[in-house]
């Protein structure tokens, strides 16, 4: 009985790493929620002023002002995008700093299916902010030659 109680107690305690990554996870979850709700103010508040958004097309490397100019007309019409996190890994800079975090996440999207997000967050005076976000398509290895073939034909 004592062992079961100790196991229950220790299983509910977050590890130090989970505790440290929780604020980073909240920023990412909030960014996804704001995009889904077409809340441009909350969405762009998730990023540093000098952030970059790298999209799925090779030409999509946007500064935050460029990405805002692209996205705000959609958000202002109530049109957002929904990417649901399926899994995520967050890593922190060494203990001396703890001011940089990087992540990768598997996402689910109604139109694109399984996608991947990855990037870097920086601890600022306003809290954790996304410095760079990269959205990519997750192509199964056995389909990659066919996909590359389609891309080459388009080039």
UniProtKB/TrEMBL annotation:
Q: Which InterPro entries match?
A: NTF2-like_dom_sf, SnoaL-like
Q: Which Pfam families match?
A: SnoaL_3 (PF13474)
Q: Which residues form the SnoaL-like domain?
A: 24-140
Gene3D superfamilies (alphabetical)? 3.10.450.50
Task: Classify the source by domain of life.
Answer: Bacteria
Q: What residue stretch is flagged as signal peptide?
A: none
**Annotated protein name in UniProt:** SnoaL-like domain-containing protein
Name the source organism: Brevundimonas faecalis
Organism phylogeny: Bacteria, Pseudomonadati, Pseudomonadota, Alphaproteobacteria, Caulobacterales
